[in-house]
Specification:
alpha/beta; Rossmann fold; 13 helices
Length: 296
């Protein structure tokens, strides 16, 4: 049950968001957890920054900041990838991080399929002219081709572009560019580049990373910070259990935690499903860290 104070807080922040949307019709730069990004308050997904409107901080970003502060110094390479970049908070955070900027020719490569979100991402990337920034308007796919994507529902239930219809709730579709990781690396990376880290959150389409990036993942062996969302996987006709079992065979897989020790190694699917972090959630979703067995 939602408390009265939570209802008041949501009403107040939504009212302020609407005021800001009217005042800054094209959006503006904001600071969220000491990271500067471009936010368009007219977009439904700007609600993800609701808390930062009042305090300048958002708790789920603070959790990932602590985790990334722990992970990024352990990586090996100069290219940091943000797939499903949205407005670019993770893009900007990594671009500003000392563990990234200390690498030779540090590079941030970001993908975002949703056009309004990509417009914000592009402006966020423009703030970092002192390192190489590559922002691509595309969806990650298992091949490089145009693919259908479904527009948000007119009734407001949808939030942004999806490559499946049911969760988005919309009927109209458009063709968008789909890019495979192997083709991205071949076209946009230099021969001496090495992918150190991949953050990927694309609502159940994460298996495209492996289907279209086998050569690149084998070559670079990056850390992969990945959302695991069974409902989203099912939207694509993928069995979450089979998918997780395959990951466990191919990688060292750890459950990401909100505080130290930050990671808990998973030995089986059951070790995730029986965990306190999993069973206590109202919706089953979590972040995993994948490390190539060759790199361990």
């Amino acid at each position: 049950m939602i408390s009265p104070s939570a209802i008041i807080y949501r009403f107040w922040t939504e009212l302020r968001r609407r005021v800001l949307a009217a005042r800054y019709s094209g959006g503006r730069y904001i600071t969220c957890n000491d990271v500067t990004l471009y936010c368009n308050y007219r977009l439904p997904t700007s609600v993800w920054y609701r808390q930062s409107i009042r305090t300048g901080r958002q708790e789920h970003f603070a959790t990932d900041q602590r985790l990334f502060d722990y992970l990024l110094p352990q990586t090996n390479g100069n290219v940091f990838v943000d797939i499903g970049a949205h407005f670019g908070w993770y893009t900007a955070f990594m671009a500003s991080h000392s563990a990234v900027r200390g690498r030779h020719q540090p590079t941030i490569l970001s993908l975002e399929a949703d056009s309004p979100s990509y417009a914000c991402l592009s402006k966020t990337a423009d703030k970092h002219t002192d390192i190489r920034m590559i922002a691509l308007h595309a969806a990650l796919h298992h091949t490089t081709e145009n693919i259908p994507a479904y527009l948000p529902a007119a009734d407001g239930k949808g939030t942004c572009l999806h490559t499946y219809a049911d969760t988005a709730g919309g009927q109209d579709s458009i063709a968008i560019k789909g890019l495979a990781l192997d083709d991205i690396c071949e076209k946009w990376l230099e021969p001496d580049d090495k992918i150190a880290f991949i953050k990927i959150d694309i609502d159940g389409a994460e298996p495209n990373l492996f289907a279209g990036g086998e050569r690149s993942l084998e070559k670079h062996s990056p850390f992969i910070h990945m959302e695991f969302w069974p409902r989203g996987l099912r939207e694509f006709g993928i069995s979450p259990d089979d998918y997780l079992a395959d990951l466990l065979e191919r990688f060292e897989v750890s459950l990401c935690l909100s505080s130290e020790p930050f990671l808990r190694k998973l030995e089986s699917c059951r070790s995730l499903y029986d965990s306190e972090e999993w069973t206590k959630k109202s919706e089953q979703i979590c972040d995993l860290l994948l490390v190539s067995r060759a790199a361990t």
